[in-house]
Design a protein that fits this description.
By secondary structure, this protein is mainly β. The chain is built from one helix and nine strands; from the N terminus they run βββββββββα. A five-stranded antiparallel sheet has the order 2-3-8-5-6, with no helix packed on it. The longest helix is centred in the last third of the chain and has 7 residues. The relative contact order is 0.32.
C-alpha cells in the first residue's frame, strides 16, 4: 500500500448550499503520481471532517462522507488523469483557512489488501 497525503495548498471558498446553509469548497490540484499496476486500486481517505462532505474528482461526483473522527475510505473507480482536481464541499461554516481534516490517496494492490485484512492468514 502506498499513501500520498494531500496537504496544503488547498483553495478555499465560502459558498451557499442550495438549501441556503453555509458550505465551504476546498479545491486541490495534483498530478497522477505514477502509472498504476494491473489490478491496483485507488481510494481517497478522509478523517476529521467537520461536516458532511461531497467529493468530486475532475468534475465528477465520487461520493459523500459523514463527519467522523475515524478514517473513511472512498473508492475511486475512474482512472486518474495526468493532472487532477479534487473538490471537497463541506456543510460547515468553519472559518479555518486550512483544510479542516486529513485527506490522502491510497494505492493498493490486491496482495496489499489481503495482507492488511484481519481475516488473512499469517
Amino acid at each position: 500500500m502506498h499513501r500520498i497525503r494531500l496537504r496544503a495548498p488547498w483553495d478555499r471558498e465560502s459558498i451557499a448550499a442550495p438549501s441556503g446553509g453555509p458550505q465551504i469548497r476546498y479545491t486541490r490540484r495534483f498530478g497522477a503520481p505514477r502509472t498504476l499496476e494491473p489490478g491496483e486500486t485507488v481510494a481517497l481517505l478522509a478523517a476529521h471532517l467537520p461536516g458532511i462532505a461531497t467529493i468530486s474528482l475532475n468534475g465528477i461526483a465520487i461520493g459523500r462522507l459523514s463527519p467522523m473522527p475515524t478514517e473513511q475510505r472512498l473508492p475511486i473507480a475512474m482512472p486518474l488523469a495526468p493532472r487532477n482536481t479534487l473538490e471537497i464541499i463541506i456543510d460547515s461554516d468553519d472559518s479555518s483557512p486550512e483544510m479542516p481534516g486529513e485527506i490522502a490517496l491510497v494505492f493498493e494492490l490486491p496482495t496489499d489488501a489481503a495482507q492488511s485484512s484481519p481475516n488473512s492468514a499469517p
